[in-house]
Amino acid sequence: MTVPVHLLLFDIDGTLIEPRGAGRVALRSAMLDVYGQTGPIDDHDFRGKTDPWIVRDLLRCCGWADEEIDARLNEVWEPYLRHLDDALEAAATRPTPCRGVPALLDRLSADGRYELALLTGNVEEGATRKLRAAGISRFDVGAFGSDSEHRADLPPIAVARAARRTGLSFRVEEAIVVGDTPEDVLCARANHARVLAVATGGFDADDLRSHEPDGVLEDLADSDSVMEALEDVIAGTQEVR
């Protein structure tokens, strides 16, 4: 009997890693290089947004029209990556894995019931560099902010890429998004995908529960609890742990 393989789509910042501000530092410098302004970047909530969406929000606060933003947006990412490399080297802004994540990824990677991919608002090269700096190397496919500014566009892209890489037949409706923000829940729901929310990125369990994910965990520290929660999500049993 063939065992079904379930595709898990992991967010990065606040879910897999503690970002510690490296992206904000790098984006500030890159926006100054390209636009000469950053808008209210120190107070802006980055959580759950794609990198291009963040740039647009910040510049709209300064009165920039979308056409003006779009004209230079592609120029942001080369200096962003350069400044990100510097921030990832600095002790104060070097990311670290969220508690329990390395052990959980080891366990999931060895479990034939699961395939792992990324679903993140980071541009692809930024995602790769953040994970490398945090010592995480379990992912070789996913969907990124560089694929679309709109997070809801990303699950089908991640599913298609994972299917091509593995040769397996995945459906977006059966994928499980794992993330720490309401935006992770909303992007899953927009695609009729399942979602396991984790209260590790600044939104507590009650905040996340109000968006009706299929399951909520306080964190990913206990791999036994995560595995049980994934089984509940697959079975369609909603449970907050």
CA-atom Rg in angstroms: 18 Å
What CATH calls the topology of the largest domain is: Rossmann fold
Q: Please state how the strands of the largest beta sheet are arranged side by side.
A: 5-4-1-6-7-8-9
Mean pLDDT across every amino acid position: 95
Q: Low-confidence segments, ≥5 residues, pLDDT <50?
A: none
DSSP E strands, number: 9
Question: Which class of the largest domain in CATH terms?
Answer: Alpha Beta
Number of helices: 10
Q: At the fourth CATH level, what is the homologous superfamily of the largest domain?
A: HAD superfamily/HAD-like
Q: Which architecture of the largest domain would the CATH scheme give at its second level? A: 3-Layer(aba) Sandwich
Measured as a percent range, the helix fraction is 40-55%
- Tally of separate domains: 2
Give the CA-based shape.
globular
Q: How would you classify the helix and strand content by structural class?
A: alpha/beta
The helix/strand order is EEHHHHEHEHEHEHEHEHE
Task: Describe the model.
This protein is an alpha/beta fold and 241 residues long. Helix content is 43%, strand content 13%. The protein folds into two domains: 6-18 and 95-240, Rossmann fold (3-Layer(aba) Sandwich); 22-89, DNA polymerase, domain 1. The strands form two sheets. A seven-stranded parallel sheet has the order 5-4-1-6-7-8-9, sandwiched between helices. A two-stranded antiparallel ribbon has the order 2-3. The longest helix has 13 residues, at 22-34. The mean pLDDT is 95.
